[in-house]
Structure formats: C-alpha cells, structure tokens
Amino acid sequence: MKLTYYGHSCLYVEHEGKSVIIDPFLSGNPKAGIRPEEIRVDAVLLTHGHGDHFGDTLEIAKANDCPVISNAELAGICARQGAKAHGMNTGGSYTFDGFAVKFTLAFHSSSVEVDGQLVYAGQPMGLLLTMGGKTLYHAGDTALFGDMKLIGERNRIDAAALPIGDNYTMGPEDAALAARWIGANVVIPIHYNTFPAIQQDPHRFVSTLEESGLRGQVLAIGESLEL
After folding, report:
1. Fold observed for domain 2-226
2. Are residues 198 and 166 in contact, defined by beta-carbon separation less than 8 angstroms?
3. Which of 104, 141, 173, 193 could make a disulfide contact with 126, Cβ separation 3.0–4.6 Å?
4. Within 13 Å and on the Cβ side, how many CA atoms surround 31?
C-alpha cells in the first residue's frame, strides 16, 4: 500500500493498479498540490460532508465513473447529484474490487451545501481501508473517544491518519493519546495548518509520539509513504 498526502485530510491510496482518494479537498485548497482533473481512482471515500472534506468529490467521481463510498445519507446526496454511490454505515464493512472498507465511529458534525442550502449529511465516521494486506485507519474529523482503544484492539493497523488541528477536532495532546490507544505502526498527522484556527506544529507532535515509543511521519504535500 502506498499513501500520498494532498493536504488537509486528503490521502490518495494505491496498490497494484487499484487506487482510492479519501476526502478530496483539492480545488478549494491552495496547499493541495494537485488538481481534481489529475486524479485517477477507482473510488472516492468520504468520512463526512463538510466542504473541506467533500471538496471535489462529485467532479472526481463523475470523471472516473467510480462510486462515492460514504454514509448512507451522503451517498444518497451524491447519487441525486448524478454520481455513482455506495452507502454504508458505522460498523459496516464491504469488500470491493481490490480493497475493503469498514466505517468506524467519529465524533463531529456533517453537512453539505446543495443549491445554496446546508443539508444534513449523515453521521460522520472514520474508516479502515485495507489494500494488499495493509490497513489504514483514517479517523476523519473527530474528538478523542474511548472506543479508539477498541479500534486498536480489534484491528491490526499499519498506519493511522489522525487530525491534530484542534478547534474543530482533537488537538495534538488528545491525538497523541489516541495514537497510543490505536497502536498503529506509523501515525500521520492530518487536518492542520490549512486555516488559521488549526495552526499546529506536526513535527512537535511526532516528537511527542517518539517520546512514547511510537513512530510518527509528517508527510509534505505530494509526499508518499510505502507500507
């Protein structure tokens, strides 16, 4: 499994000719480093419906003739906008062609703008993506919650992408505790420095992890990590 970071919470994940993109906030993010029309994927995975995660979902899904995989409400919104969609829900898993997805709890909120109006977009979730025998836990936008221990106990997690920005999600201190509970082989900080309210030092976060005997990896925009 190869992970490439495109800013904020967006990860492009590929293995042996199969690829997905998670939370593709690209054209609205000057720090993304790639345009939506450059993306070639087999699916778009969404953790929730806010604009800085939903982003270019519809454009990418339609251009690639691929499904949007998300909670049932958000999948329905995408389907009504003309995209293919596969709805799921918390705790559910499904094996697709070349990868498997399981959705987990996340504590946040979720909405999307449709015809100028904010529409409820279902429950926010994290996700476990398995490709080529490796598993990525993308926590989405979330607060710290005790069942992260259970996620770590129930799954062998090779990499965890955790938000550290604070204000809208857990901050570095809570994310460091989450990392200990999850027990991933490597932790990638996400959801920081895109906006003034979520300014953080990811290298300091990684140093905190290392003090606890954990491995962290700051990915620059466009940088990849092989698992």
Report:
1. Metallo-beta-lactamase; Chain A (3.60.15)
2. yes
3. 104
4. 16
8 A C-beta contact, residue 170 and residue 139: no
Output the tens digit of pLDDT for each of the chain's 227 residues. 999 999 999 999 999 999 999 999 999 998 898 999 999 999 999 999 999 999 999 999 999 999 999 999 999 999 999 999 999 999 999 999 999 999 999 999 999 999 999 999 999 999 999 999 999 999 999 999 999 999 999 999 999 999 999 999 999 999 999 999 999 999 999 999 999 999 999 999 999 999 999 999 999 999 999 99
**Interior/surface letters 113-141, b for 16+ CB within 10 angstroms, e for the rest:** eeeeeeeebbbbbbbbbbbeebbbbbbbb
User: Which CA distances in Å does 124 have to 45, 104, 177, 181?
Assistant: 12, 9, 21, 21
Residue 188 bridge partners (DSSP): 161
